[in-house]
Amino acid sequence: AEMECDRLEPVLRVGNLDSIRDFQDVDDVVDSYARLLDPHVPPGVYNVVHGFGPGSAGEFVVSHPDVNAITFTGETRTGEIIMQSAAIGLRHVSMECGGKNAAIVDATADLDEAVAGVRQSAFGYSGQKCSACSRAIVLDAIYDRFVERLVEAAGQFGRLENADVVRREHLRVLGGGSREQAARSEERFSRNAETD
Fold first, then answer.
1. 5, 96, 97, 180: which one is catalytic?
2. Catalytic: 130?
3. 57 close to 51: Cβ distance less than 8 angstroms
4. pLDDT tens sequence across 23-76
5. Based on the number of CB atoms within 10 Å of its own CB, is 73 exposed (0-12), middle (13-18) or buried (19 or more)?
6. Disulfide: which of 21, 91, 135, 181 matches 175 by Cβ 3.0-4.6 Å?
């Protein structure tokens, strides 16, 4: 929802309409956000569409000729499909499709600024932003000091005990309560746990 807020404000400010098809496991978050906006924007200005996979509302929206700009955050394969669709009609596309975004910290860096920047980039949006800093390239001369300070700064968030258990218990809630969605979430959780 934080990323949607950041993206939506300039869209509305210049008088455009917006339609969002959010990640299927958190549709309730976007629906709640839409209900909060509803009394403040004219009808049809902010639209939420649901659907997953080929033939869904999301595919319809990105292939529709009246859609002249697309913003996408998600997996690379879906981004490729959207880019192919957007090429027809040469529509504007802004994407975040993951990657291993690095911060480079050299000997001239202000360590206070570098630690604060890496901490914010890595953990802002709960770390769930495709452009999040997922690695830091640090010169040997300052490596130990930087790591010590970054660990201290990250430790200020505290520690959630039994995080895996908490996440597994909430999969069904995130999946909207259906067994099919919970199974999909469980599959994603297992796949992500293996790569973490």
1. 96
2. yes
3. yes
4. 666 667 778 888 888 898 888 888 888 777 778 877 888 888 888 889 887 788
5. buried
6. 181
